[in-house]
Amino acid sequence: AYQAGYEQQASTEFELQGLAIAGIGDPLLQPDLLAAFLPAFKTKRHGVPVTLVTYGLVPPNEAAALCQQLLELEVEKLEIYLPASNPPAYQQVVKPIQLGFSDVCQFIHTASEAGLQVTCFAYAPVAQQSELRALALELGARAFVVKPLAVV
Fold first, then answer.
1. Are 63 and 57 in contact (CB under 8 A)?
2. pLDDT per position as a tens digit, 2-37
3. Are the C-beta atoms of residues 137 and 112 closer than 8 Å to each other?
């Protein structure tokens, strides 16, 4: 797509989003795989932006180093799942095993401060959309978006 005029062929901003790494399993849990894959991808597809879609559940003592690694791997964007604006609601929706609401909030802040473009998101329907948007922006995210829930 890049060689065929990726940017010139795009008719909407959405088509310029590049590669998003997401799915079952958080890409941040596989830093070694990212370190092997992304340089090879960037070499072949120079200029195509990379977005990681993540829960952002990173221990605070590891967040700065991970963000630096992502910048070195030329990851441009993070989309971080933020479905609730308080710890009990977050626990109920996400059901994290080890880390929680404060950790994702800290990671959003750390990633934003490190220079990564952070967008927070939740899947529709969203009960407290204005509170979530305010929280995301306060933590340093560039935006908060509501995504339709995909039916597979």
1. no
2. 555 555 554 444 445 677 777 767 889 888 889 998
3. no
